[in-house]
Amino acid sequence: MRAGTWSAQDELDRPEPLSRRRRRSRRTRRRRSARQRALLLAIWAAAGALGVAAGLRASEPVLARLRPEVLAVRSVAVVGAQRASAAELVEALSLAAGTPVLSVDAPELKRRIESHPWVAAARVTLLRPGRVLVAVEEREPAAVAVLGNPPTRFWLDAAGVPFLPVGGADVGERIAVLGPEDARPGEADPRFAVGARLAEDVARHGIRGVREVQVARSDPAALPALLLEGGARVSLGPGDHDAKLARLAALLAARLPEVAAAREIDLRFGDRMVLRGGPASFGEAGVAGASGGAPPPNPGPHG
After folding, report:
1. Helices H, strands E: what count in the chain?
2. Cis preceding-peptide flag for 238 (omega within 30 of 0)
């Protein structure tokens, strides 16, 4: 390059003055120092908070002896309860006002709350100072269980637990489930669980006029079964209940006179439906279903 000329490359190649490098180094150190100080302050604050919390927790036994009223239970809050009243649940806790928080057994309180018929699950949290939070999940009645002798109606949840006598309450459109005579209130029974599921499936398929779901007290080969309001019995038998209910819904929607006159509708034979007790032409020999084939041999009336 000729003398007396200037280029950008010359400027880049020229060494930076020492004073400028020193100023930039000081600015960099100041920025780093500021970040380091902020980080140290955050660490000290967190450690201080943990130390205070640990100190308070460690001092609770001493405080409970010197000033027991400070850590005494003063209030109980209940959330999630709709059918069971908050007053009932607080009473179920059997927790006296003024009880020291340190002496409260949360698992025991959970057990007491879950002993209430409407409560399916509960969570108990102790909040200092002096507060107890109870969160509950209530049972949802899926049907009405009929058990015992003489028969007694109980609310039935989806798990098959008959958990509370219905008494004079309005059951709405919930279907009764006739269960085993040896079933116990408050205990899950798999047969009742099948009945509760069937009651919900009947509603889902839009089948109206079902008075009762039978899961016991009859020929096991024909169970579960449905009892219609007109007195006809629908034998479902084991397995493939959803498909059987779909065929039943279509059959009832057709409003055939022979179906209305039948005393039993048997759905245990695949895609064939057998009617018994209707007019002579559809009598005990049965009627062919959608397949168009001959009806299966009549196994005889059940129940």
Report:
1. 7, 12
2. no
pLDDT tens track of the chain, all 303 residues? 444 554 444 444 555 565 665 566 665 555 556 666 666 566 555 555 444 444 445 444 544 454 445 567 788 899 999 999 999 999 998 887 777 777 788 899 999 999 999 999 999 998 877 788 999 999 999 999 998 878 899 999 999 999 999 998 999 889 999 988 888 999 999 999 999 999 999 999 999 999 999 999 889 999 999 999 989 999 999 989 999 999 999 999 999 999 989 999 999 998 888 999 854 333 333 333 332 333 444 444 333
pTM: 0.64
Minimal CA–CA distance to 169: which of 119, 110, 99, 117?
117
Beta strand pairing call for 152-157 and 141-147? antiparallel
**Spatial CA neighbour of 302 closest among 271, 272, 277:** 277
Interatomic CA distance for residues 195 and 224, integer angstroms: 8
Strand 141-147, strand 176-178: pairing: parallel
- For residue 149 the two structure tokens come to 């002798």
Cα distances (angstroms) measured from residue 123 to each of 33, 86, 285:
48, 14, 59
CA distance linking residue 236 with residue 7, whole number of Å: 97
| 176 in Cβ contact with 154 (< 8 Å) | no
Structure tokens at 13: 């190649």
First and final CA of the chain: distance in angstroms? 115
| Locus of tokens 């969570």 | 123
Catalogue all structural domains in the chain, each as residue range(s) with its CATH number.
69-138 (3.10.20.310), 141-282 (3.40.50.11690)
CA separation (Å) from 199 to 27, 209, 222?
Answer: 77, 12, 17
Alpha-carbon Rg for the chain, nearest whole angstrom, is: 37
| Residue 65 bridge partners (DSSP) | none
